């Protein structure tokens, strides 16, 4: 599935296939390396005009090749340059060997580098080809550079960061700036990789769009491009029933707040009507707090089954503060032909028999959205969670395929994945969004989107994005109440 180029994310494996195709179509790979290395030198000169010395650390592969090109370009611009190589440069091959020959000066071994004030480090040790923990020799240099607090410009990725997963293999540089080529890789957006990149620049080294598009999967950064064309569903001028009716299940008398946060968020996010479904014991507590949100007594599965005759209720949110796991299980199974956001206790309710839930929602278009954080994810998908080879994106997609649900795998790098293989990494959430009730608010926003007929993946992705925007708008120190109030209209 081709995605918009600026938002698309390319895995290192896809990037190698792109490189191969580029070579097959006659594109000169050394020119690509020259563009890459020159872009790095340009970034270095632009960002650090005051540098006393640029120290280029070159590795044994093409990342090192980019480094030699950058060193030559910096030298040609009149800057002071030192090169330190990992391994014997005589063993370099292909374009990297040619780039090293072009630099033409004898380099020093990596272990001989002694960081000094005024140095700007250019990290060209490992990029897309990192396959295992960095050697001790490299880790020692990383620590020395870190303790001197020298600025680091990373070529493609900070060495040590796995471009596929964002995980650190052994030790990594913490770059102040990273220059990558053609498109971002998952490791630039997933944590901790995102933080270790510093500011990120994507430079077009000249691989044609047609070659990129041929190898782009359905992974992109979460943003409005994913639900363009769906926002009309939230037209505020439409009749309240047309704008969707959302139902949210309340917890017991001492735990009603979470569901009310979901309901309030659903209303603010654009649902025309929101009803809180509450057992009789919690009716008074809810009634005392509700105004625009309606209240309906639903005490057991029989009452819910009767209520479901009303087909105008477009979507349900089950789980926030719900508490009673046995009832949650019954309700979720009864709702299996309706659009449902299953969160918190609604997810935990199926920890002993997840397949019961997955089978119940297997028919038809995807209409279940689950919003687990790490702990809830591990409860429902223990084997996927335990597989150390999978990235967060891989985990979310595997879980979505198995459960026939859109998975919103929450965290500071929330991943939204669809059973059809599409996935998005969200990047707009400020750190202070991790506050009590934040997840309840998110469930309500997604519920509002489902109630208006948005498809599940788009509803979830747009919900996560609006939630992040609301967090940024409400600002540091926000409470979940502020968050709902800060929800902005969905951009068209
Ligand atoms: N189209 C592009 O984006 C271009 C990217 N370029 C640059 O090329 C690198 C990828 O180059 P590659 O040679 O495949 O990989 P690396 O240089 O990252 O390293 C491979 C090299 O290192 C060895 N190795 C891997 N892990 C370790 C380890 N932990 N310890 C020791 N050695 C390790 C491995 O065996 C190889 O020898 C990409 O990032 C860009 O910077 C090109 O310039 C052209 C276009
Ligand atoms: K690097």
CATH architecture of the largest domain: 3-Layer(aba) Sandwich
Q: Mean pLDDT score, rounded?
A: 95
Give the C-level CATH assignment of the largest domain: Alpha Beta
Name the strands of the widest sheet in spatial order.
8-17-16-15-14-13-12-9-10-11
CATH superfamily of the largest domain: Ribokinase
Bound molecules: ligand LP7C6HRI, potassium ion
Counting helices, strands and paired strands, the structural category is alpha/beta
Count helical runs: 20
The count of strands amounts to 17
- In angstroms, what separates the terminal alpha carbons? 22 Å
Our Rg estimate from Cα atoms comes to 26 Å
Query: Any low-confidence stretches, pLDDT <50, length ≥5?
Result: 1-5
Q: Determine the fraction of residues in helical runs and give it as a percent range.
A: 25-40%
Keywords: ATP-binding, Isomerase, Lyase, Metal-binding, Multifunctional enzyme, NAD, NADP, Nucleotide-binding, Potassium
Cofactor: K(+); Mg(2+)
Catalytic activity: (6R)-NADHX = (6S)-NADHX; (6S)-NADHX + ADP = AMP + phosphate + NADH + H(+); (6R)-NADPHX = (6S)-NADPHX; (6S)-NADPHX + ADP = AMP + phosphate + NADPH + H(+)
EC number: 4.2.1.136, 5.1.99.6
